[in-house]
Amino acid sequence: MTKTAPSNTLPPKAKSVIVELSATPEKFLEDDLEGSQLHSQGCLYPYLEKKKLLDGSIAFYPRVIGERDPNNPTLWRWGYNWEEQVDGIWKGRSIGSIPPGAIPMIRLMQQQGATKEDIIAFIKRAKTKKPSPKSDVCKNFDNTKLKPVLPDDALIAVVLFAGSGGIEAGMVQAGIRPVIAVEFDPTKPELSRAFVEDVAEGIALNHHRNFHEYGCKIIQLTVQEVTESGFIGFPRRPDYLHASPVCANFSQAHTAKAGIALETADDLTAATAVAEAIRQLQPRVFTLENVPRYQNSQSFSIILSALEQEGYSVNYSVVNMADFGLPQARRRLVLIASRGFHVAIPAHRKQQFSFSVDRKVWRSLCNECLSQ
Most confidently modeled of 127-141, 205-219, 262-276? Predict the structure, then answer.
């Protein structure tokens, strides 16, 4: 394929009038498929829509600039074929226009030996499911009209180790205004500092797009560096201070021996910086989130000591996010500390969604979310 140099001029507007539409592949059933597979599981296949324009030219959809990646589901239309027996005769059946987002789950179902009936039922749910505009917080942030509107006197929060903004998104939904977010990864400086339009995945740029309307400022320094500067420009006595220290060295997936955290000097200095933030900023409420093994670390002890010295009431526990309606069995250490009043870790949001109480219901919820 010949590659041409990029041009600054806009391409000509495509003709949108269609006089012919063919969305069915030429081969309804692949020749090399065993009949038993079509009977039991069916066949998931990619295809292209062929459209003939008024000028006689042929266009293939989805439209792609450059080569079409065979491993990218979004660059193809998707269908599902199977055979069923009618009056003793096997007849072919097909469903087209399957949402690309459902393709990984369908492939997984096939690998795990799901029946074609289960796969067809899943596909039908995926095709008919219309997600609510309120169901995706991150997508809502791309649309100003759907963003939550906070009052001028909303509670304010400072976030340390902000990452890509998940905590801030939750805060805004809860009516809390994030005013400062500290995030910088020295191992990925370009990703952390990116704040230009041609680096769309930059953390700073994403923060600006999502939270600038709430007055949130992204500080592109490490928490240790911010501590050394004396937290210049930070509000004193904010309503909330949150920290999610880097968890890699305490995660089950990254440590060699179960139950042993490979704590480093960076982890300890980060914890010391969090402790100093508590002392200097004096938040009304301090929260922390991390992997379960963080509670056995020296880093966690440093933070606990600072909270106790400053007179905070501390409550922490390992909770399963599935018990709060989230469609994943993610266990996390959650700490809530307050001074002058007591804040407890909430009980299960909905008992019927408790992973430990009813796994069948929980899996049903998970499958429903995946179908979207």
Answer: 262-276
